[in-house]
Amino acid sequence: MGEPTTTNAKITKPLPLPIKGKSDWRDYRPLLLPNGATLMLVRDSQSKTTAMSVCVNVGASSDPRALSGLAHFCEHMCFLGSEAYPGENTYKKYLSAHGGKSNAAT
Fold this sequence. Notes:
- The chain has helices at residues 70-77, 90-97; strands spanning 5-7, 10-14, 27-32, 38-43.
- The protein has a four-stranded antiparallel sheet, with no helix packed on it.
- It is extended and about 45 Å long.
- The chain is of the alpha+beta class.
- Strand 1 (5-7) and strand 2 form a beta hairpin.
- The mean pLDDT is 83.
C-alpha cells in the first residue's frame, strides 16, 4: 500500500495513515490525486452499504469580495450536467434509480 499506483497514466501518491481509535475496525487508505485533491478510502467490512463523500475545502469564506456567492454558484453548476450525465439533474436521477442520493453544502 506504500507505493504510488498508476491509473490512466497518472500517479496517485499514498499519504500517511490517519490515527485510529482502539475501537475503530475500519481500514483507511489516504491518497493524493494528480490534481492535488486528497482522497480517503474507507473500508468497513461490517457495512451493508457503500458511500462516497467529497470535501473540496473551499466555500463561501473563500469567495473574492467582488464575487460574493461564487462558491454556492459553482456548487449548483456541479448538478447542471456533465459529459457523462448531460441533462440537468440526470446524475441525481441516476443515483436515485440505483438507491443513492446526493447532497451539497457550501
